[in-house]
Amino acid sequence: MEFKDVVKKYYIDENYNCSECLIHAANEYYGLNIGFEDMKMFGGFGSGMYAGIVCGTLVANVAILSKMVIRNKAREETDQILPVINRMVKDFNEHLQGTSCRELRPKYYSKEESCLKTVLLAAEVLEKAVDELKEKVGN
């Protein structure tokens, strides 16, 4: 099963919002060992924190990469996390042509699919970042 299929399962079948969907999908697909109760923290990031600001998929992508890179504290591992996050945010912005829900919703939202297109595009960006990360660390 491909990552996008797991993403669709959580977005369409399980009816999670954009941020929750990516957290659940990445947890399953990449084996992140995030507990169900902890994943609830991402519910409030959907719809740009319900204020149209930073896209919930971008927040989820940052959280997922952080989980993969940070071993102890981000401040102690800035050298590792900074380039990974910066590159992913740049790729996200270029691939989706924006980073805020306000910018993305008019481009990708539909009444029939809601934000599925945004979620799948964000998943592509995440996969690329994870692949680059794995290549960098040799896994």
Beta-strand portion reads under 5%
* Helical content class: over 70%
What is the mean pLDDT? 95
* Continuous helix count: 8
The helix-strand sequence is HHHHHHHH
Protein described:
The protein is mainly alpha-helical and 139 residues long. The protein has one domain (3-137). It has eight helices and no strands. Helix 1 (3-13) crosses helix 2 (18-30) and helix 2 (18-30) runs parallel beside helix 8 (116-137). It starts with a helix and ends with a helix. The mean pLDDT is 95.
Task: Explain briefly what this protein structure is.
The chain is an all-alpha fold.
Key features of this structure:
single chain; 139 residues; mainly alpha; 8 helices; 71% helix; globular
Helix-strand blueprint:
Elements: H1 3-13, H2 18-30, H3 36-39, H4 46-52, H5 56-69, H6 78-96, H7 101-108, H8 116-137
Helix pairs in contact: 1-2, 1-8, 2-5, 2-8, 5-6, 5-8, 6-8
